[in-house]
Amino acid sequence: xxxxxxxxxxxxxxxxxxxxxxxxxxxxxxxxxxxxxxxxxxxxxxxxxxxxxxxxxxxxxxxxxxxxxxxxxxxxxxxxxxxxxxxxxxxxxxxxxxxxxxxxxxxxxxxxxxxxxxxxxxxxxxxxxxxxxxxxxxxxxxxxxxxxxxxxxxxxxxxxxxxxxxxxxxxxxxxxxxxxxxxxxxxxxxxxxxxxxxxxxxxxxxxxxxxxxxxxxxxxxxxxxxxxxxxxxxxxxxxxxxxxxxxxxxxxxxxxxxxxxxxxxxxxxxxxxxxxxxxxxxxxxxxxxxxxxxxxxxxxxxxxxxxxxxxxxxxxxxxxxxxxxxxxxxxxxxxxxxxxxxxxxxxxxxxxxxxxxxxxxxxxxxxxxxxxxxxxxxxxxxxxxxxxxxxxxxxxxxxxxxxxxxxxxxxxxxxxxxxxxxxxxxx
Length: 427
Hints:
Elements: H1 2-18, H2 23-30, H3 36-41, H4 43-58, H5 65-82, H6 87-142, H7 146-169, H8 171-198, H9 203-219, H10 268-320, H11 323-345, H12 348-374, H13 384-394, H14 399-415
Helix pairs in contact: 1-2, 6-7, 6-8, 6-9, 6-11, 7-10, 7-11, 8-9, 8-12, 10-11, 10-12, 10-14
């Protein structure tokens, strides 16, 4: 462009010097407006203009519009790295918790398998020693032999000690605890993966997940010494593996579906239905499992005391000698083998733990529904239709079956009768 203007000046000067009458025509033809096509086609001019604008912005001048858009977009990309409270930090924390949860799943699987092997090996060993000692003492009763009586007394004594250990730790119940812990940690693992896949985690997600992990650690401890759960409590109680449900807890945005209504999918009828379901779970399912758990616990206490007592009586009878004493030793030894087989082979301790877990499941359902209904801010609740579907799936029912159960519960409250079915169809 500068060359073009210089050439126009030379032409003008030459025309003036020659005194030609076409001077104006030549100047007009040369000094026409610059074509836009020429300015767009020159890439060096565009690049130069952008560089000038960028230098001006560094010196504090106003941003040009294209550069302002680029800088704003750049800031948005870099903001998570610069802010300590960004979503990337929360995501990193949640991934760290996920790794710990996966490690706990593997640990509980391994220890559960180990304790199940304890139950099998200890039961076989105790019964082998008991039956062998019973056979020896029976032979000693038929034909007196001090060596047989001494060997049987030693075997009965060893069987008594091992039976006491088994009755104390309940290997079948320990194995069931680890199976439940592994299942619950896997459930928490899938929840964390859902949060990471569907949304940007927040600080409340991290805190809630941490609380769930620590609650599971308290409910199902790994070590035996000093941390083992009491196997024979004075009163049967349900398992509690969740943190206390807060009314103000934040529902995960990835699991929340905001409807087009102000009540987020909730209605008065749905709230009445949920309260009716809670009454069924509390009065039918939970009470039934509490009763069964108490019966199983009492039976387990009787069996845990009987087996070591019988083997100790057999050891004493075989040690004292005499036909009557050896006969009593043989009978009590056989009875001890039967009781050991029934208690540990039938895994009565595992049944007690299963009832604890089932009762805890219904307690968790009650607390979750009640906490949801107590929240007055509908925007903080989970979507009502989604929540109803989750309750139905956890109870093994369809939506229509869940609503029928709620109607039966409401009718029973009005008429003063009892609902003729349980809330859960799974167990």
